[in-house]
């Protein structure tokens, strides 16, 4: 009993414990400051990198910034926590060794998680897609998600659809990835005119106008082209056109160009197809009998 009381009232012991607690608080505050500084440094590094030829794209830089910031946070917190435990006399080496053995045992039962993490590494470092890309994800031939990539993690990826739904996919389930934001897109659309119009005349007045459109619309890479007559039917001729656009802007551009070209043709007297009604007069029976 006396030994317990002497230990409890030992001033040196409490001073040592208080010093360790104070030192731990200082380390935690230091970790918070260092993490913020490292995050700012990473952002500044990529901000400078964007001004040089080394930067591939803003979306790629955003993906790498988030990944490096996460890794830096994990590493700093691991170092700080192991240092604090060491100050309190905990044998960190034994914990790490035990964690390694436990990790191996857990790994056999968590193969899906390991697969997700490994696939996440390949997605990021192979640059399969970046934050902000529009993608379609297929699993065993079936589309499971399509939309804009919101975030890429080592275990899962978040994809927001056009209508607002957020899909969270484990990385290991992505068998096929279609990225619509890597290369320029091609807008294919038809313009309908009356079958009575002269196609050569339309081409002669339309071609110079098409050359002015890239200056009018920033999403156009180059002037649209007339591919030729796509279809001829009663009263209607469809002229197929193509336009190279910035990635994933083909739908928007095709809608804009349809209206723009239609207005231009109206101004130049080119008529659109109009429905026709043909009426036949039925011969009168009395007239037939009279004959």
UniProtKB/TrEMBL annotation:
The chain crosses the membrane at residues 21-42, 63-88, 94-114. GO terms for molecular function: mechanosensitive monoatomic ion channel activity. The keyword Membrane applies. Residues 71-111 form the Mechanosensitive ion channel transmembrane helices 2/3 domain. Signal peptide: none annotated. GO terms for cellular component: plasma membrane. It is a multi-pass membrane protein. It is found in: Cell membrane. Pfam families: MS_channel_1st, MS_channel_2nd. It comes from the Bacteria. Residues 112-181 form the Mechanosensitive ion channel MscS domain. Keywords: Cell membrane, Membrane, Transmembrane, Transmembrane helix. SUPFAM superfamilies: Mechanosensitive channel protein MscS (YggB), C-terminal domain, Mechanosensitive channel protein MscS (YggB), transmembrane region, Sm-like ribonucleoproteins. Belongs to the MscS (TC 1.A.23) family. This is Mechanosensitive ion channel protein MscS. It comes from Macrococcus epidermidis.
